[in-house]
Amino acid sequence: MFAAAGHSASRLFDLLYPASASRSRRIHHVPILTHDAFYKENGVPGFLSNEGVELAWTQYQGLLVKKLNLLTEGTDYANASTKTLLLENARNPGAAALFNYASMAHNNHFFFNCLSPNPGTPMPAKLADMLTADFSSIASLRQELLATAEAMFGPGFVWLVKETESASFKILATYIAGSPYPGAHYRRQPVDMATQSPDTIGGLSGEDYARQTQVQNTAGKFGLFSRTAKRTLGGVSVQPVLCINTWEHVWLRDWGLGNKRGFLEAWWNIIDWKVVEDFADVGETIRREAKKFRR
């Protein structure tokens, strides 16, 4: 049922936004996962069926990419990475839609990139030692990650992040298309610009209207064009190393209502800990898959 609904949504989008409507080559595309062909044919063993992968990755990521192409066509952002898009537009309320689609595309890719086709992939010893030092045990880390994700009332992501300065690991939850990167925080947006345009905003004072339609804080540490690092007040610089996607379209098809916990427990068993090690920068080498998320 869910797969059929997904295909209908995809066809509807194609009708509304036909490829022929584009006047130039579209740069953004659905990334090819390390185990892309295997997942499309077999799913992620013990976690998602091939139909589940089709819905949560192929169709959904494709929808996000189409939106990004529509929003960036003919602009300087046409060939920018999703990370660049979300960081550079996080403080621009008028670009809320661009931020949301870019951040969601980045997050969803990060989630799928950390999966393994082989359940029970062992955790590298050095990474295990570092995580044990911060969470007392791997069992405690697992319990805290899964409990945080299960308790989320609404869609989002739960992240394992590494603090850049202290090298310690923390758990961070972001809702909807929120980003774990500190450079994407500290937004002032009393009106949802994803559903309203400057022409339809009503009831705002002149000051509020200007804040919604003009770039704010163009100078200083927090400005959109600041040359210094953009970090929220009291914020901590972190590097995401792992995440779980709690959006319902990811798990409802294969796990059904009331079994979110089963989905989360299965996720823990198919984590590619070598990829996590790469993101955490604790191994001997860093593979290409980890490097591209840092651009």
Describe it for me?
- The chain is mainly alpha-helical and 295 residues long.
- The chain is built from 12 helices and 3 strands, in the order αααααααββαβαααα.
- Helix 3 packs antiparallel against helix 9 (248-255).
- Residues 1-25 have low confidence and may be disordered.
Topology:
Layout: H1 2-16, H2 36-42, H3 50-72, H4 82-89, H5 96-113, H6 125-135, H7 138-151, E1 156-163, E2 169-175, H8 206-213, E3 238-245, H9 248-255, H10 260-269, H11 273-280, H12 288-292
Antiparallel strand pairs: 1-2, 1-3
Helix content: 40-55%
Number of helices: 12
Structural class by sheet pairing and helices: mainly alpha
Number of strands: 3
From N to C, what is the helix and strand string?
HHHHHHHEEHEHHHH
In whole angstroms, the N-to-C terminal distance is 38 Å
Radius of gyration: 20 Å
Main beta sheet strand tally, sense and closure: 3 strands, antiparallel
Report the sheet-strand fraction.
5-15%
pLDDT under 50 segments (min length 5)? 1-25
Question: Key terms for this structure?
Answer:
three-stranded antiparallel beta sheet, 8% strand, 295 residues, mainly alpha, single chain, disordered N terminus, 46% helix
